[in-house]
């Protein structure tokens, strides 16, 4: 079957509406995945935007709609810090969601390890979990992504090499402008997903969004290069990001 990316854009009035729309999209893809093969593989990003979504999914109105025992949580990227460090993407999800619901299957990137060692360990975990042969990439049911004002996504930054790596599932990155080490899924993994959902909010993202959503332009930004080869690409933005 020829490859095709199904693209949709949703604009919500407020960040709270964005979280609600994203929650319903996650639940929809969870239902589809479980009907298809009995489990839902979900990869989480960090940053501040997903927190509203995590907290909403933990509320009684939403938590009852997800069979948490069938959800396998992974991470898109992680800061190279301890799991209890305020900057840890795992910690944010753990405190806002994972420890609030009956989630039992979550597989964090071990930010406390040497970056290269942690990246290799996570790659090995993905190869095992997805039963991959050499050269194969995992196909997540859903990947939640954000976008920085510089157009980065995951921990794939415009001026760093990671965005161009094609023969790895997970890499460590020294982000020079942040003076910090990160671990991140690579672009081929993101583009092998059944669905990538970008959540982008706030007027400070308007300029980069105008560039990222221009499908006719050369995809220069890392976020622009996320296009699931056989899957869905969903942008969920709020009115502040749309109008600047
Ligand atoms: C991270 C994220 C990163 C994030 C963007 C947007 O580890 O920081 O994975 O890619 O999605 O930086 O962050 P905000 O949601 O805070 O704007």
From TrEMBL:
GO molecular function: 6-phosphogluconolactonase activity
Alphabetical GO biological process terms: carbohydrate metabolic process; pentose-phosphate shunt
InterPro entries: 6-phosphogluconolactonase_DevB, 6PGL, Glc/Gal-6P_isomerase, NagB/RpiA_transferase-like
EC top class named in words: hydrolase
Superkingdom as given in the UniProt entry: Bacteria
Pfam families the record matches: Glucosamine_iso (PF01182)
Catalytic activity: 6-phospho-D-glucono-1,5-lactone + H2O = 6-phospho-D-gluconate + H(+)
Keywords associated with the record: Hydrolase
Enzyme Commission number(s) from the entry: 3.1.1.31
Family designation: Belongs to the glucosamine/galactosamine-6-phosphate isomerase family. 6-phosphogluconolactonase subfamily.
Primary role: Hydrolysis of 6-phosphogluconolactone to 6-phosphogluconate.
Protein name from the UniProt record: 6-phosphogluconolactonase
Native organism taxonomy: Bacteria, Pseudomonadati, Thermodesulfobacteriota, Desulfovibrionia, Desulfovibrionales
